[in-house]
Amino acid sequence: MVYIHVPFCHRKCTYCAFYSHGAPVPRRLTAYVDALLDEMERRKREQAHPIRTVYLGGGTPSILPLEELARIVEGLRRCFDLSQVEEATVEANPEDLTPEYLLGLKALGLFNRLSIGIQSLDDEMLRLIGRRHTATQALDALERAHEAGFHNISVDFIYGLPKEFQFSTFDFQLVTHLSAYALTVENGTALARQVEQGRVVLPGEDEVVRQYHECCRTFEAQGFGQYEISNFCRPGCHSRHNSRYWDRTPYLGLGPSAHSFDGQRRRWNSPMDLDNGGWEMENEEVLSEADAYNELLMTALRTTRGIPLAMVPDKYKKELHQKMQPYIECGWITVGDDHYRPTREGLLHADGMAAELFVA
Q1: Which of 238, 267, 237 is nearest to 250 (CA)?
Q2: pLDDT confidence bin for 23, thresholds 50/70/90
Q3: In this structure, are residues 135 and 157 in contact, taking their beta carbons and an 8 Å threshold?
Q4: CATH 1.10.540.10 for domain 2-245
Q5: Ramachandran region of residue 112, left (φ > 0), alpha (ψ -120 to 50) or beta?
Q6: 0.85 exceeded by the pTM?
Q7: Contacts of 210 (CB under 8 A, 6+ apart)
Q8: Spelled out in words, what is the top-level CATH class assigned to the domain 289-360?
């Protein structure tokens, strides 16, 4: 699996703490793609097996002109074996998805899945979090994507905003996958400053939890099953790429600040400096057996599949069983088929449970 980080945005959302740059001039986009293609050439030997999934994330990949996306696709085909690609996703913002752009994207012959960042269907909330589109533009973009031949479409929403979003205008039949993320106030973001100054008042924890459960009920009533704390899909339409992160499948990360994992090491790139050649591999971390086990706990407890005992080293099984008992008794964990599975309530406490289960 290959992840490509596109670090550009038209404008940074008020809640976003991810690495990104503002809207670039065309020559910088070209310089970015030049550096990305160079990295593909340098690192192609790290991906010896056929690629199953490709994911262009960001940032905002749909900020790239079609000709630059075509160069990226050509580079992927030149450097890697794409004969067994099951899923190739590109993230997009609604305002970028014109009919011409969508048809051009489809014509590239690689991308078979779109992930569209709608976030809210309330124009006031969209302005609050710094989105450039309106609810109407988002719904129109979704229809255009479907008309252009994209039938595997994921949409992102955010809950925990001052006004709860409504789905009365949303056509669930146009999408196969939904993601609902709790709004997080990250230090250093514009939203954090607004909250500190009292200009934005966010709902309390009980209301956020209520909104989460309401999302779950709404999505399930429309035929979407939950498979991870923030992700829901129609049968067979889970994100194959993201699911492999949670399974700790090795992956190659390309682009500035992208991370890679080979099963034993995590490596990450430096931020982008196009004036000095782009970016380089910045650092790496070799995982110990305890590190790998802790990562398994952290990721598996966020999924409805839970922790498979077959993946737990024998030396940790007895301790895990003992530590799980309080969570089983309070209804956060169920046991069956050699798995410890979080309940819906347990998913809300996944991070806290994992921290208590970690080994030194």
Answers
A1: 267
A2: low
A3: no
A4: no
A5: alpha
A6: yes
A7: none
A8: mainly alpha
